[in-house]
Amino acid sequence: MVATWELRARFAVRLAEMYGSEVPAYHTLVDVCTEVNAEAAKGRDDERLGSIERVTAERHGAIRVGSPRELAKVARVFAAFGMLPVGFYDLRDASASSVPVVSTAFRPVEAAELARNPFRVFTSMLVTEDRRFFDAETEGRLQEFVAGRTLFGTELLELADRASAEGGLGDRDAERLLGLATDAFRLTSEPIEREWYDHLERISAVAADIGGVPATHINHLTPRVLDIDELYARMQARGIAMISEIQGPPAWEGPDVLLRQTSFRALAEERVFRHQDGSVQQGSLRVRFGEVEQRGIALTRKGRDLYDRLVVEIDRRLGEGQGLSRQEVALAVWRGGLPSTEAELESLGLGFFSYRVAGAAPPVERASLRDLVASGVLVPEPIVYEDFLPRSAAGIFQSNLSDEGTRDDEQAGAEYDLGRLAELVGAEIRDPFDLYAAQRAASLREAEQILGLRIDDDRLEQ
What we know:
five-stranded mixed beta sheet; 2,3-Dihydroxybiphenyl 1,2-Dioxygenase, domain 1; 18 helices; dioxygenase activity; three-stranded mixed beta sheet; about 15% strand; oxidoreductase; alpha+beta; YdcJ_bac-like
């Protein structure tokens, strides 16, 4: 039996091998990440945000689908690898560009599974009924086009369902599952209808990449780096064209929180196009790019509210036109609004931490969390942010588009949230905050058992 986590690890490797053969610059990105991680890990306590082995092996992929039906089948495929839908992201209003998708991420949900292999896939679904982007005729053509294609074959889905139900597969079936699943995300060689693709691209390059091609594919496969600023500089030094800035929190002297991302620009890739006159010709598209990420501490709801307010403040100051770069403005806002130490993040209930027993239990039946931390009996350890930021994801998309597309904000948008997407897909979509809170609570329960006392959680509301 090849267990679920091992299937997931092998799947990540297979996709990396395939993607590297399709996008050679990906190998350069991975090589530079490995160099930076090896250097950054020296003399630093990076084990707290994941071992160097985990960080170096870590990847997240990104795919796009065209309907709830296709997303439901994606859920079945990824369930075979222990990857369940977590979080809801609405990219439609997260960017000035036309990005008509809502998204979730498929990943392991238990800390032990994340430690074994944290592979995750950010998965976006086209919202064809949103009138800000698509008129009724285009919506109808999109739905017909998407309904007429098959992204995942019957054999793949049946094997995936078995692997999910049984917690793995025998060697032969495991190999077959991995082959079929990897091929499902391979760049297609089938001709693309040029006029239909161009019509969608005028609305949104993202829409064209989803609803203008006969199959889905890996858009990017993202390694994790410990110092994204150094990575950015080294990639440029190697002559790789990077997007204009790093998305997410600024570089600063305080704790890393949430997620920082950047990428090299989308490269021209040869594709085959069919024209209205029936002729088939070579052409090229720029839809795939090389993303890289640096992960920090997961924030509580209270911490996330603070983060969002700081982002709004950055935008406000930039709008005043003071002649400063976004990094300069963001750094000033961060220094004025975010605690400069992990200890403050923890004590104010802004970040998620687990708690490790490091001292002897006091001679009492119950004690406060605050006192146990202050006395060194419990040591807070940061919980890594495993998820994504809508604005950063949209920013990466936008930075790699040839133009912003079109949208009519006078029209009504289609309402989506986590609940509606879950209903359409027919699968529970977990709330990331609940998962982090559960990990935190589990560590406190374990500490209570070790210390033999009741811990009063007197931190601010998580």
